[in-house]
Structure formats: structure tokens, C-alpha cells
Amino acid sequence: MTQNPVLKELPGVKGQLLPVCALCEEVPPRGIAGGYLIKGMFLCETCESAILDLKVGSHQYEFYMERIKKLLR
Q: The pTM is what?
């Protein structure tokens, strides 16, 4: 099991919570400042940018729409 490189760089502070993106399941490099909390779910800036650049009907569009549907159920 490999550890996320972001986690290696952060100091070992007990009780520190790091956000995990609901779509890509990664911790953004800037932590909580690297995304948005929407209806109790965290969305990183990388996924936000990807969603904004999607073309309707593309493979990525279908992928993100399915992930979002699963999260909202």
C-alpha cells in the first residue's frame, strides 16, 4: 500500500483532518483550501476544473455524471 505523497509532506499532527475529494478520492495538495464543501461532500479544484471543461456526450462527461449520481443517492 503506497501512501499519498501529500500526506508524507504534512507534519504528523494528531487529530488533523484532511479532506478527500468525493469524486477522485484524493487529498488536494492545499488541503481544505484546495476545494469546496458542497452539501457535506468535498470537491477538489482539479475535479471542479475537469467538470467545467467537459463536452456533453464525451466519455469523461459520462464518467463524471455517473460518479455524481452515485454520490447524490
A: 0.69
